[in-house]
Amino acid sequence: MAKKYYELTPDERLAFLNLNDSDRKELHENQSTNNAQIIENYISDFRVPMGVLKDIIVNGRHISVPMATEEPSVVAAANNGARLLNSGGGISVLLPERTAMIGQILFVGCQFHEINGYVTTHQEMFFKKARQAKPSIYKRGGGLISIKARRVSDHEISVDFEIDTKDAMGANIVNTILEAEMTLFADFESHILGAILTNYATSQCVTVTGYVPVELLGGLQVAEKIVALNQFSKHDPYRATTENKGLFNGISAVVLATGNDWRAVEAGGHAFASQNGTYQSLTTWHIQEDKLYGQLSLPISVGTVGGVISAMPQAKNALHMMNVVSADELRGIILAVGLAQNLAALKAIASGGIQRGHMRMQYRVLALQVGALPEELELLVSQLSKLKQVDANIASKLLMEMRK
Ligand code: NDP
After folding, report:
1. pLDDT for residue 404
2. Is there an atom of ligand 1 within 6 Å of 66 CB?
3. Model confidence pTM above 0.85
4. Number of domains composing the chain
């Protein structure tokens, strides 16, 4: 019997795709047996550049942070923002007493008081079941912290399980415990919609703060503009979306480099940005005396173990580079990068230079696109930088002239 597509080898799968010989060869050359085990229908690796934020001070410790991103200028901006915040002594991290994931069992078409009564009177039974479902997380000092019924609407109820998953991101741990807990709701079975963790990880909300002496920003006028831009993003979702995107340029690059789930972090972040009913910037900046103070708060679900981290050597290298010992420490570092990234972007806009900085890196990409060799890049980029108007045609012509 013919094999199903998912049962084929990566090369056999490639043979079915609309590819010319050279594309197929390139995809083949980028295969790795390790990654072929991680996802389904694997055909090849997709490489993303990894750069480094060389020095950021987080809770007094100098750290080099790996960043995986395809966007030019992100790593340069992160280094820039970190240098400014380092001059104010670096970034301080405020963690909740105990970080935890939240899992939900979802009910529809029943009375809140019934579910709430059941949950309140059977607490011990739920705690016992969690321990039975995942004894290993208890041995590590984690496990169920609380269980509460929450009214979502007049006919929808969520039973929220707060679970300490220690140094794992915890999605699978939470789902395992929830499945076991669901069996205890047999009397309400017809009302159960399902059970799953939430990525709105409000019990993992971390805050980072830092400051920069105003003179290092180019003066009070720039600092005031940064504050005004930040205020604007508290009132205008259009501005806020871009400001938060810039912040996630840094956050997601570290989340990805460490083998963590950047969709989970971004989804939680955007939900948190809407907590007041309007989508707002996640950071807040203000001036006090001669300093610009910044703060960023964000729920952040990441791990230093579990998921694909152990299966991806690059992720383990990244964690070693930062010398992180716990998921909580990683949370602080990731948010610190986010604050630095945000500062760099706001400073660039406030001083009218965002396009200037961006374009030099974009010209490098354009130069590569039109076929410049590594030894031709610098000259072509510097010639492109002098022009008022640049496109692929112009870059290509300049390259031809350079080669004459
Ligand atoms: P795992 O299922 O790999 O669980 C983590 C495992 O790590 C634990 O079972 C534990 O094993 C082991 N471990 C070793 N040391 C520690 C420690 N110090 N603290 C805690 N655990 C430790 O991964 P997660 O539960 O973290 O799930 C993360 C994955 O789930 C990610 O890949 C994510 O993309 C994915 N996912 C995400 C969803 C979402 O965000 N909505 C939904 C579903 C999946 P032991 O049993 O020995 O204790």
Report:
1. 86
2. no
3. yes
4. 4
